[in-house]
């Protein structure tokens, strides 16, 4: 993503250059901040090893938030205690995305979210890229809105790209929902268009 660091390693050189992703398209990534010595290693068709460095800023923000919650003694609002009452999970018969209905884990997640089995605590979906988290969240949103058209769902992401992905997936279903304001997409003012 834009702003992430990466390492560019010319073949058989033993040298590593650090850069920052400046812009992306479907087929290219623009890198800035490479040391001027990189020019000596660059050839148009040469293959370079690229290593992406995970941005720590979102993790640092999460840790900072948890620290603030502890300092303000507000843990019970963010981390509510588990209810002793077992909530019933209501099965869903019609899925907007048929693949969700055929995947046990995704189906179970959507049914638990819609049945509100976690109570006031968040229902967390976690997994590596490409495992279906976004389609699961989109299905849960659609099911919640179908269940009650007055439901309002706020989707927050750590990047514009992730929010775009969720919004694009939701827009595909807009004709099935008569609400005038089915979707509102807000953007960071620092967004690179």
Provide a descriptive summary of the structure in words.
The protein is an alpha+beta fold and 193 residues long. It folds into 2 domains: 5-53, no CATH class; 81-176, no CATH class. The chain has 6 helices and 4 strands. The protein has helices at 57-71, 75-78, 98-102, 104-115, 133-147, 160-171; strands at 5-9, 17-24, 29-32, 49-53. It has a 4-stranded antiparallel sheet, with no helix packed on it. Strand 1 (5-9) and strand 2 form a beta hairpin. Helix 4 (104-115) runs parallel beside helix 5 (133-147). It is globular. It starts with a strand and ends in a 22-residue tail after the last helix. The model has no long low-confidence stretch (mean pLDDT 86).
Structurally, how many domains make up the residues?
Answer: 2
- What's the end-to-end separation, in Å? 13 Å
How do the strands of the widest beta sheet line up side by side? 3-2-1-4
- Tally of helical segments: 6
Assembly state of the chains shown:
single chain
Number of strands: 4
Structural class call reads alpha+beta
Note poorly predicted spans.
none
Shape: globular
How much β-strand is present in the residues?
5-15%
């Amino acid at each position: 993503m834009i702003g992430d660091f990466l390492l560019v390693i010319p073949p058989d050189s033993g040298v590593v250059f650090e850069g920052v992703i400046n812009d992306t398209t479907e087929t290219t990534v623009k890198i800035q901040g490479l040391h001027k010595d990189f020019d000596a290693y660059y050839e148009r068709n040469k293959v370079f090893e690229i290593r992406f460095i995970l941005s720590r800023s979102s993790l640092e923000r999460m840790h900072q938030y948890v620290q603030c919650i502890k300092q303000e003694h507000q843990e019970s609002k963010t981390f509510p205690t588990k209810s002793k009452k077992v909530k019933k999970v209501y099965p869903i018969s019609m899925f907007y995305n048929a693949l969700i209905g055929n995947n046990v884990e995704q189906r179970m997640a959507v049914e638990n979210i819609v049945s509100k089995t976690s109570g006031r605590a968040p229902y967390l979906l976690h997994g590596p890229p490409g495992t279906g988290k976004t389609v699961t969240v989109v299905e849960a949103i659609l099911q919640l809105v179908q269940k009650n058209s007055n439901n309002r769902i706020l989707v927050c992401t750590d990047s514009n790209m992730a929010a775009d992905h969720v919004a694009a997936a939701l827009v595909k279903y807009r004709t099935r929902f008569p609400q005038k304001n089915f979707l509102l997409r807000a953007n960071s003012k620092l967004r690179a268009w």
